[in-house]
């Protein structure tokens, strides 16, 4: 990795660390100032993160989504975007700390990867379906990460957090269930679109909509877990903690789909697995 790129990663990590700290302090004490400073710091980190990805795209003249390192850069961007949108829609900053921390840890993990060099896309990935398939899926992953963060907090305290903290969420109480539902619904829609795009692409490239590639199979497992959530949330017996555990299971399946495929037999033959 070039020296300018190393400096940009360092700056981005520092900005994510500042955002994480500010959101963490906001959890501990009410502050009208932090409600503006924390998202501003996260927005600055997002801008630096996106700039790095755009530079790689321009230098290589191809979408920078081939290596694990590049995908982690994209994932951090997606988590920051999804959280900032949820904050704007729900006025809910209670998920700011885990979301900013998720961005920080994702980029830190990327920093230690060995596949930072620019590489050429193989012929199978030189398709107009490549960018929408990857981007839609990663925004889905990011949404479900935020949902998992909401589920974790819900399990720690399942009752509405009845605090007069307009800096954390507008109104008198913090309804984590509504945040959980919103993040899961959005993430599930994106997973569905990602599956459909991937199937159409597979048909055009390999002549079949579905070939039971290991990553395809686990993508289906992830999709089914969140489909079950959307059905079971209407069932009173599944309200509350059971649904939160189901979200954590679904996100574990997503994480394994993203990072664990190389552990499976036949992974070296898959075009979906980061080598």
Describe this structure in words.
This protein is mostly helical. The chain has a domain at 123-275. Helix content is 68%, strand content 0%. It has helices spanning 3-28, 34-60, 68-90, 96-111, 130-156, 176-206, 214-232, 241-259. The model has no long low-confidence stretch (mean pLDDT 85).
Helix and strand layout, with pairings?
Layout: H1 3-28, H2 34-60, H3 68-90, H4 96-111, H5 130-156, H6 176-206, H7 214-232, H8 241-259
Helix pairs in contact: 1-2, 1-4, 2-3, 3-4, 3-5, 5-6, 5-8, 6-7, 7-8
Strand content: under 5%
Instruction: Name the overall outline.
Output: globular
The level of helicity is: 55-70%
Q: How widely separated are the two ends?
A: 18 Å
Q: How many strands?
A: 0
Structural class, by secondary structure, is mainly alpha
Unreliable residue stretches? none
Q: If helices are DSSP runs of H or I spanning 4 or more residues, what is the number of helices? A: 8
User: What is the N-to-C succession of helices and strands?
Assistant: HHHHHHHH
- Report the biggest beta sheet as strand number plus sense, adding barrel if it closes: none
Q: What radius of gyration results from the CA coordinates?
A: 19 Å
Mean of residue pLDDT values? 85
